């Protein structure tokens, strides 16, 4: 009886591309933040959000992080590793963004 020819399955080009793009991304499966990116994003000035509202939202995000099952892996991947390229902005690993002001500093009156 003849042996059937072997078949080598090849992923489509877009899957190979996605694998290369995601190769350095940490696996944070089960993270509490999944699907809740709005809590973690930096202040959206263009949406008219006030600094106080953003601070409350960031506090809620940080509290969610503290209960997250992958908090340690998140901090290792995004916070504690120096020089991480493309680090997300906003709340990361339970740490809130530093308060910054936009625009030029005001000149003091003489």
TrEMBL record:
Region annotation Disordered: where it falls in the sequence: 82-110
PROSITE patterns: 4FE4S_WBL (PS51674), PROKAR_LIPOPROTEIN (PS51257)
Domain 4Fe-4S Wbl-type span(s) in chain numbering: 32-102
Family matches, as InterPro entries: 4FE4S_WBL
Entry protein name: 4Fe-4S Wbl-type domain-containing protein
Species of provenance: Gordonia spumicola
